[in-house]
Amino acid sequence: RAHRNDMENIFPFLFLGAIYSLLDPSPAVARIHFFIFCMGRIVHTVAYLLRLKAPTRSVAYGVAQLPCFSMALQILLATTPYW
């Protein structure tokens, strides 16, 4: 169950990360995006497996989603001139 939960979040991140990488972002900013997502998912998975109290898992999920939203926004901003 935890594995399926991770896959539901990791695959979209990989897709966004691949497209984001094609935009030639700053390597430092890209690393920060990838690190935050990775740490958020690790904390979320540990909280899921250890059944930690309620806000831990939710906060970890939210933190892991921030880089996804940021990358999606940057992809949209980079592609809007072509619309």
Automatic annotation (TrEMBL):
Cofactors required: glutathione
Protein's membrane topology: Multi-pass membrane protein
Reactions catalysed: prostaglandin H2 = prostaglandin E2; prostaglandin G2 = (15S)-15-hydroperoxy-prostaglandin E2; 2-glyceryl-prostaglandin H2 = 2-glyceryl-prostaglandin E2; (5S)-hydroperoxy-(6E,8Z,11Z,14Z)-eicosatetraenoate + 2 glutathione = (5S)-hydroxy-(6E,8Z,11Z,14Z)-eicosatetraenoate + glutathione disulfide + H2O
MF terms (GO), sorted A to Z: glutathione transferase activity; oxidoreductase activity; prostaglandin-E synthase activity
Pathway: Lipid metabolism; prostaglandin biosynthesis
Broad class of where this protein is predominantly found: cytoplasm
Location in the cell: Cytoplasm, Perinuclear region; Membrane
Residues spanning the membrane: 59-77
Keyword Methyltransferase: no
PANTHER family xrefs: MICROSOMAL GLUTATHIONE S-TRANSFERASE 1, PROSTAGLANDIN E SYNTHASE
Family statement drawn from the similarity comment of this UniProt entry: Belongs to the MAPEG family.
Protein name per UniProt: Prostaglandin E synthase
